Amino acid sequence: METADLGLPVDVPSTALFTDHYELTMLQAALEAGTAERRSVFEVFTRRLPDGRRYGVVAGTGRVLDAVENFRFDSDVLGFLREREIVDEETLQWLAGYRFSGDIWGYPEGEVYFPGSPIMRVEGTFAECVLLETVILSILNHDSAVAAAASRMASAAGDRPLIEMGARRTHELAAVAAARSAYVGGFATTSDLASGFRYGIPTVGTSAHAFTLLHDTERDAFRAQIDSLGRDTTLLVDTYDVAEAVRVAVEIAGPELGAVRIDSGDLLLVAHRVRQQLDALGATGTKIVVTSDLDEYAIASLAAAPVDAYGVGTQLVTGSGHPTCSMVYKLVARAESADPKAPLVPVAKKASGGKTSIGGRKWAARRLDEHGVAEAEVIGTGPVPAELADRQLLVQLVKGGQVVARESLDVVRDRHAAARANLPLSATQLSRGEPVLPTEYL
Amino acid sequence: METADLGLPVDVPSTALFTDHYELTMLQAALEAGTAERRSVFEVFTRRLPDGRRYGVVAGTGRVLDAVENFRFDSDVLGFLREREIVDEETLQWLAGYRFSGDIWGYPEGEVYFPGSPIMRVEGTFAECVLLETVILSILNHDSAVAAAASRMASAAGDRPLIEMGARRTHELAAVAAARSAYVGGFATTSDLASGFRYGIPTVGTSAHAFTLLHDTERDAFRAQIDSLGRDTTLLVDTYDVAEAVRVAVEIAGPELGAVRIDSGDLLLVAHRVRQQLDALGATGTKIVVTSDLDEYAIASLAAAPVDAYGVGTQLVTGSGHPTCSMVYKLVARAESADPKAPLVPVAKKASGGKTSIGGRKWAARRLDEHGVAEAEVIGTGPVPAELADRQLLVQLVKGGQVVARESLDVVRDRHAAARANLPLSATQLSRGEPVLPTEYL
């Protein structure tokens, strides 16, 4: 097999199959009609943010670049398409030579976005661009949804570290991408080993109720954990009686005990009690980690509690109520003919039933106020005003088919923190509201 | 590499890395304490259904079996764990020889479930079972959430076929599993080529607004599509003016036109108008496909509309408001010693803060009323009452580490339809309510 082997348990040999059937049949029809080679501009954007959200977070860009690089139709894939009679032989021939050769521009990963922001722009022939629609949207819609939730949680947590632990609540490979997005949004660590392996994100772990229940007594379990993992470990103290567990934990580990984890009950109340007890036992340096269906609101409500770290699972990996963004991939301009020099014509859906969009290849810039704080997302199709020239948001990601903008996740994470910090203060209010920046069209 | 290569863009070499960090550190501590080999029983269950739902749907079982078979620690994975100092050398040695050798029982895939149903039971040593927690929960939580939404949509759609088209709204590999779950829940086809390749699900496609916009006129676009794909194709008629598009479509394709797709506007109203227009033009056999943010409620509201098929995306792949189930994997019994013949002791978390569970290895049976309709989910830890002996729900899936229950997706799909049909009529009410069967503990 020429291309990437996704192997078991997935067994999809190339990112080219992460594609909707109609992309290929449209390609066939356009090839036959002589329109497939018309130069085209597609843009990714959302018409709105999830209800009540103040800003969006671009995430997944690095994964999109991987997917575009590995988008190839090898013999297995072509054999499948032939056997199913999805497209004709001419189209299969065309697909066999497929390699994206166009340009991609986009908001750099970690940047914030607003309704209408042209988050990504893909330019090339209609044929080569239309095929990328599904996989680009899959990645950006998933990863950005998780990153947006992570960013809100990170704001709410302030300086306290957040641990991503939602792998068990989402598809096993979505979990790997979710841990990546959480890191971009401001999480410190993850429980997911695969994301440590693939992306180098620091992994951490505590222990589960099963470990305590395995042993004859809680004392035996704590002893086993400390003997093996050291006093710096985190003991789970809510299997039976929390106060008794804390007492035994400090008795065994001494004041050097790393941390205790509380995974049930009224976390605010229990954290206060446990802190008092730990302090009274001399374990003033022992930390308190809380978990148990946390979301950004629960995290915020614990701001005054003596909590040292938050573990977040379900609500993170499901986007805290918004598991997907509503990003779309729309043709906004195309040439009048297959001549590579033919001028581009703006195009847009115009039916009355909604879902209209604005035609034309767009630029975007973030205008700042006199204090250097962002005050508007400005989008246009004409020349860029001089005063916005150095505030433009789109950067080149792919040039003539070659990826030109690989970045480390730490760069992306820092960019997100900076972009969020540059928004008006109301951006990090958790209450429902309008986007914190208005979108202005020039 | 000895194990499955997930390749780009994922690059996780084995399902063993779809695991939380703490599973491995618990293993290390248990190995050192001499408790790792205690015979153990873990069960997967939910404490509740998503708010308002009447039943759950077990999905992903087949994928769990693949994941268990491919759960191996090869040299790449061991190298990663060593470099990160996640576990010690003794534990790495143990992991190098890992192969699940125990038994797994479960509700057969496609079966319905209720709060407390022991959906899956994993038995073996603590060490070999605890490691499987994360990947089993990832798969079942994701796949069952999508299948439950699919099942409600299929009920609402009645005899009209449903097309899964949500790939662009979720992680690119979650999309493949989502298409599989949708099929289990009753969908007929999918747009996702990868799921066609991997699972043999029939794939279909129509066309996008971009295809119309690529061409100089809508007429040119329709002509191109019909010339290439035949009169039986589905034309998208809402790019500009629906009535004009329908007129042109029938003019070009004649009454043999396969279908038209409506993707925006008031679908109820537009579908009636389009049906009248098609009939007036003699295209009485031309079908109407509707798409556009459909969920089970929107589908139900279109029951009286002249619609022939529904395409569903976002709401399907995100579980229609419930993108994950709350399945947990709990130790319910374990031996008193590492002696393989030591008796099992029921165990359960007992702290006051909620999240308690019922210890002991469980059986489950569905009791029927005098008409043969399901009336209760009966769960027990003692002997099975004679009258329920042939209504037991758990079947053996893995025996001594060998998968013994591979099934085709069509068998699973048929099982789901039969299980749903055997529930009281109120099961398929879309309104919010209690689980349609009570759970009784014996």
UniProtKB/TrEMBL annotation, chains A, B:
Catalyzes the first step in the biosynthesis of NAD from nicotinic acid, the ATP-dependent synthesis of beta-nicotinate D-ribonucleotide from nicotinate and 5-phospho-D-ribose 1-phosphate. The lineage of its organism: Bacteria, Bacillati, Actinomycetota, Actinomycetes, Kitasatosporales. Gene3D superfamilies: Aldolase class I (3.20.20.70), nicotinate phosphoribosyltransferase (3.20.140.10). Transiently phosphorylated on a His residue during the reaction cycle. Phosphorylation strongly increases the affinity for substrates and increases the rate of nicotinate D-ribonucleotide production. Dephosphorylation regenerates the low-affinity form of the enzyme, leading to product release. GO terms for molecular function: glycosyltransferase activity; nicotinate phosphoribosyltransferase activity. It is an enzyme of class 6 (ligase). This is Nicotinate phosphoribosyltransferase. Pfam families: NAPRTase_N. One of its GO terms (cellular component) is cytosol. GO terms for biological process: NAD+ biosynthetic process via the salvage pathway. It comes from Streptomyces colonosanans. Residues 17-141 form the Nicotinate phosphoribosyltransferase N-terminal domain. It comes from the Bacteria. It catalyses: 5-phospho-alpha-D-ribose 1-diphosphate + nicotinate + ATP + H2O = nicotinate beta-D-ribonucleotide + ADP + phosphate + diphosphate. Keywords: Glycosyltransferase, Ligase, Phosphoprotein, Pyridine nucleotide biosynthesis, Transferase.
